[in-house]
Every structure is written in C-alpha cells, then in structure tokens.
C-alpha cells in the first residue's frame, strides 16, 4: 500500500470534517472536536457469546481497524489522534498490528482501558459519533454533542464520493469477488448444492463467512425468487439455475456482486430472459455519467424489463402500456441499486443535500434506495432483476394489472425463480468505470 494515497485520503477526510464542523457551527452548535467510536462488543441476550463485531462506518472511514472500543479524535488543524485501547487479556488475542502506511498518519495513544480515555479528552466541546450514548455521557460529552444530526447529515452525504485510496480498496474487493464467482459457477455446473457453492465462493476468496460484507445469497431454482434468501441447502441438487449475490471486504470496503447462471436444460424462455437481462444490465451501466439522476437509471431498468416481458411473450401488452400499469414492478420489486462503500447499502442515498433534506423515491418504486444525482467518484451498484414471485404475481390474476400477463407462461417459469445481474460502478469525469467487469 502506497503511504501517499492513504495520506491524501486522510487529508481529504480532515478537510471534510473541518467543513462539517463549520456547517455545525452555522446551525448554532459550537463544537471544537469530534470523537469517533468504533463500537462496543455486543453479546447475545443471556449469553456470554459475542455477536460478530463490525466497526462503525464513519470510524472505518478513518482507520481500517475492525475492533471494538477504538477511538479517533479529530480537531481542526491538529494531527488526528488514534486512541488505541488494548486491554490486558489472556482469553483473546488483543494486539492490533499497525501497518506503517496508516499508522504514520495518526498520533497513536495506547490505552489499557476505555476508562483511561476521559482524562485524555482536553478539547472543550466534543461531538461523539458512535452507537453508545451511555459511554459518551461517561466521557462528559454534552447530550447535544452526541451524534449531532447536522454533522452526521453532512458526513453521510459526503461519504458517497470516494478518494483514490477508497477506489483502490473497492477495485480489490471486486477483483477478489470475481474469483469467488467463477468458483461458484463451476461448482454449480458440477452439480454442487447451495452449501457447497457457498463454501466454494468463500474458499476462492480466502475468507471466513464473518469477513464478508453481507450474508451471501446462494439460491438454486425457485429460491432465486426470494430476494434475500438466507439458507444454504445441503441436500443434493438437481438444479437448473443459480443466483449468487456475494462480495468481499477489503480494509472495510465491500463489493456487492450478483451473477445468475442457468444450465442448458433450463426453460428456453428463461435462458432468453437471462441473456436479455445481462444485456440490459450493461446498457444501464453505460447510461451512467455525471448529472444524471439515479432514479432515471431505475426507470430505464423498468422500461427494459417491460420490453423483455413483451418480446418473450410473458406479457401481451406493449412496453409503454406495461410501464403505465406498473407491471414491471411485479417482476422487479426492488430498486436498480444503491450507494456502496464501507456499508453495502451505504449512507446518504436518499439525501438531497448536506443539510439532510430527504429526497424520496418516486411513488411507483418505494424500495429505491438511491435518489442522488450522479457526480464524479460516486460509487454504487447497478442490479436489475426479474423474478417470478408467486406472492406478488398471484394476487394480480383477476386484477387489471394481471390482464396482460400470460399466466401459463408464468407458471412454467416459477420453478426457475429469478435473475439478478449486479456490478459496482464509479462515475468518472465523463462516464463510468465498471469496477467489477474490469476483472472478468
Ligand atoms: Mn446490491
């Protein structure tokens, strides 16, 4: 890792926080410093077993350290301080290996317990960003300084724009995930079940399940119509279709990639639909450029799906009529994508500005998570899908929306589930960088 890229990233984050504090001041709140808390270890109720830990997103923006009770203190004009809490403990490994490329950007203060932190906080008015109000109060932070909305709105909004350092992590997370996706496809074609395909992905990426950015979706046949299907069936599979939605995490940054594969024995209409969806996904990626509003990409996806439904005889009305009746939404009930970065569904997707004004999705697509206008270095997913979901389709049989649906065809396609194709993209100065396909 080049020291300079991370140094420039931290410079940018410092500039951003300084501006965020100015913004907070203009809303009437005088704050001199910001304390970021990675989080605390949580336990299952009534148990001494810890829940897998994940550092808070705004903390990871500063430091690639996924450990509880770590703190960064930012004060404008000063070098950021990393309060590295390393308890004395013979039950768990507590050391934190500090790589020079990031350690050199901080003043590191080693503490043996969180209780030692209070006396180190000398700034007058500190804002606390994190999930533990009680701890903030113990650190003598004012109630008004705990997760101040005006600061968080500003920081959430700006997280959409990635530094070169962040883009490098996202590219690497995509490169690793693609290795996993090839292994998963081979396992599927070789007759693997959901569990085996899941393990093939993890093994090819050299990761533990808890190191994934989200729970892998590994769905065979009709289960691929369950959007966030969570099981991994172990029984022998005579399957025709695999939908796998799986990514990797690199220094806190996640990729989010979906591929759908079908065997030659799948229904010919499903196979054509799959080819159509693969083309549609690439067409939407190619629409990406600065200045476009993300909901326009969503509308393009709905229109493309309507055309496919018409061309393949799944519906008997024109694409325009189908869109007018909101029929494509029965086949793609989710949004065409979301912001991506430290969190898989990254923050700020529905913000219109740094003040936090909400920009809601259009009424015909309430699940759309991104309503932002595209700007250079914004990173998000493009993931059109088309599914045969009985729960959504069946109630329409005797309704106006159902009149144009070819029900016998839909019944033939139920056993094949659905399709989703997902890439991660970055907006460039004049167009798009496909962070996923460059590794295929
Ligand atoms: Mn996604």
Summarize the structure.
This protein has 13 helices and 15 strands.
Structure characterization notes:
By secondary structure, the chain is of the alpha+beta class. The mean pLDDT is 97. The strands form 5 sheets. It has a 5-stranded mixed sheet. A 3-stranded antiparallel sheet has the order 6-7-10, with helices on both faces. Helix 1 runs antiparallel to helix 5. It folds into 2 domains: 156 residues, Creatine Amidinohydrolase, Chain A, domain 1 (3-Layer(aba) Sandwich), CATH 3.40.350.10; 276 residues, Creatinase/methionine aminopeptidase superfamily (Creatine Amidinohydrolase, Alpha-Beta Complex). It is built from 13 helices and 15 strands. 33% of the residues lie in helices and 14% in strands. The two termini are 23 Å apart. It binds manganese (II) ion. The site of manganese (II) ion has 5 residues, from loops.
The level 1 CATH classification of the largest domain is Alpha Beta
Order of helices and strands: HEHEEHEEHHHHEEEEEHHHHEEHHEEE
The chain-level structural class is alpha+beta
- What is the number of independent domains? 2
Counted beta strands: 15
Defining traits:
five-stranded mixed sheet, alpha+beta, Creatine Amidinohydrolase, Chain A, domain 1, Creatine Amidinohydrolase, binds manganese (II) ion, 33% helix, single chain, three-stranded antiparallel sheet
Q: Can you lay out the helices and strands and say which pair or pack?
A:
Elements: H1 3-26, E1 33-37, H2 57-60, E2 71-74, E3 81-85, H3 100-103, E4 107-111, E5 126-129, H4 133-138, H5 149-158, H6 164-189, H7 194-205, E6 217-220, E7 241-246, E8 249-250, E9 253-254, E10 257-262, H8 268-287, H9 294-311, H10 319-324, H11 328-331, E11 379-382, E12 385-387, H12 390-393, H13 407-413, E13 418-420, E14 423-427, E15 432-434
Helix pairs in contact: 1-5, 6-7, 8-9
């Amino acid at each position: 890792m080049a020291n300079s890229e991370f140094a420039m990233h931290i410079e940018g984050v410092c500039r951003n926080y300084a501006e965020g504090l100015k913004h907070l001041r203009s809303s009437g709140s005088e704050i001199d410093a910001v304390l970021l808390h990675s989080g605390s270890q949580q336990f299952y109720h009534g148990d001494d077993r810890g829940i897998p830990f994940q550092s808070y997103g705004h903390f990871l923006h500063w430091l690639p350290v996924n450990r509880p009770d770590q703190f960064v203190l930012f004060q404008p004009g000063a070098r950021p301080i990393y309060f590295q809490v390393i308890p004395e403990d013979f039950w768990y490994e507590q050391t934190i290996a500090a790589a020079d490329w990031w350690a050199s950007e901080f003043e590191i203060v080693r503490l043996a317990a969180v209780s030692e932190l209070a006396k180190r906080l000398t700034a007058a008015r500190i804002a606390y960003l994190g999930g533990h109000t009680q701890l903030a109060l113990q650190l003598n932070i004012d109630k008004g300084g705990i997760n101040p909305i005006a600061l968080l709105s500003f920081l959430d909004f700006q997280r959409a724009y990635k530094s070169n350092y962040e883009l490098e992590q996202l590219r690497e997370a995509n490169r690793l995930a693609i290795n996993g996706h090839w292994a998963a496809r081979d396992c599927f074609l070789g007759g693997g079940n959901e569990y085996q395909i899941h393990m093939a992905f993890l093994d090819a990426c050299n990761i533990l399940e808890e190191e994934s950015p989200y729970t892998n979706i590994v769905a065979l046949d009709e289960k691929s119509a369950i959007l966030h299907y969570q099981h991994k069936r172990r029984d022998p599979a005579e399957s025709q279709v695999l939908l796998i939605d799986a990514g990797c995490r690199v220094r806190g940054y996640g990729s989010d990639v979906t591929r759908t594969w079908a065997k030659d024995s799948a229904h010919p209409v499903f196979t054509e639909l799959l080819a159509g969806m693969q083309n549609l996904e690439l067409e939407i990626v190619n629409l990406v450029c600065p200045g476009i509003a993300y909901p326009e990409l969503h509308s393009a996806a709905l229109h493309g799906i309507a055309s496919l439904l018409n061309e393949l005889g799944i519906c008997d009305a024109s694409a325009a009529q189908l869109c007018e009746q909101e029929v494509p939404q029965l086949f793609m009930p989710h949004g065409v994508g979301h912001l991506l970065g430290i969190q898989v569904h990254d923050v700020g997707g529905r913000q219109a500005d740094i003040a936090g004004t909400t920009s809601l999705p259009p009424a015909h697509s309430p699940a759309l998570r991104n309503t932002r206008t595209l700007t250079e270095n914004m990173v998000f997913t493009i993931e059109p899908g088309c599914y045969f979901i009985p729960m959504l389709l069946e109630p329409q049989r005797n309704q106006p929306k159902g009149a144009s649906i070819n029900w016998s065809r839909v019944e033939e396609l139920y056993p094949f589930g659905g399709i989703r194709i997902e890439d991660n993209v970055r907006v460039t100065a004049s167009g798009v960088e496909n962070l996923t396909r460059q590794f295929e």
